[in-house]
Amino acid sequence: MNTRILGAFAAAALLAACATADQSGQQGGAGQIRPGSQEDLVANVGDRIFFDFDRAVIRPDQRPVLERQARWLAQYPSVQVTIEGHADERGTREYNIALGQRRANAARDTLVALGVSGARIQTISYGKDRPAALGSTEEAWAQNRRAVTVVR
């Protein structure tokens, strides 16, 4: 009798696991990305640009990412975004908050110049508080000097 009950529970658990294993975590189901979502932005456009040390000027090699973002935002006019400014670990917290804000503003200003309504874009700076890469190496620092566009 106990074996049958345990077997029934095992079968139920197995069926439940199979039913949820199909969900990929992406919106749209069955592994599809929902158009206009953060996942769509990341997969098809790119959500971040990178900066040189102690600079908030858009590098020429990063401008194409912002151009793709502007075209994507034109395609989805109801989407609003926040641009997060980030810095590497060097410098004081206050300095890096200000630097991150200048970076977010530079990305925002470029998107606006490319035709995106400024009313659709907010900015915020996290300074050095949310690193993308841990470590005190040039490689880690380069990944942390960034502006990230996030769908709201």
- Structural class of the secondary elements? alpha+beta
- Beta-sheet strand percentage? 5-15%
Describe the biggest sheet?
Answer: 4 strands, mixed
| CATH homologous superfamily descriptor of the largest domain | OmpA-like domain
Question: What is the helix content?
Answer: 40-55%
Distance between the termini: 54 Å
User: Reading side by side through the largest sheet, how are the strands ordered?
Assistant: 1-4-2-3
**If you compute it from the alpha carbons, what radius of gyration comes out, rounded to the nearest whole angstrom?**
21 Å
Shape: globular
CATH third-level topology of the largest domain: 60s Ribosomal Protein L30, Chain: A
How many domains, in number, for the residues?
A: 2
Strand runs, count: 4
SSE pattern, N- to C-terminal: HHEHEHEHE
The CATH architecture of the largest domain is 2-Layer Sandwich
* Number of alpha- plus pi-helical segments: 5
Reading off the top of the CATH hierarchy, the class of the largest domain is best stated as: Alpha Beta
Explain the layout of strands and helices.
Elements: H1 2-21, H2 38-44, E1 48-50, H3 63-75, E2 81-86, H4 93-113, E3 121-127, H5 138-144, E4 146-151
What do you see in this structure?
This protein is of the alpha+beta class. The protein is built from five helices and four strands. Helix 3 packs across helix 4. The protein starts with a helix and ends with a strand. It folds into two domains: 1-29; 33-151, 60s Ribosomal Protein L30, Chain: A. It has helices spanning 2-21, 38-44, 63-75, 93-113, 138-144; strands spanning 48-50, 81-86, 121-127, 146-151. Strands 1-4-2-3 form a four-stranded mixed β-sheet. The model is unreliable at 5-27 (pLDDT under 50). Helix content is 45%, strand content 14%. The longest helix has 21 residues, at 93-113.
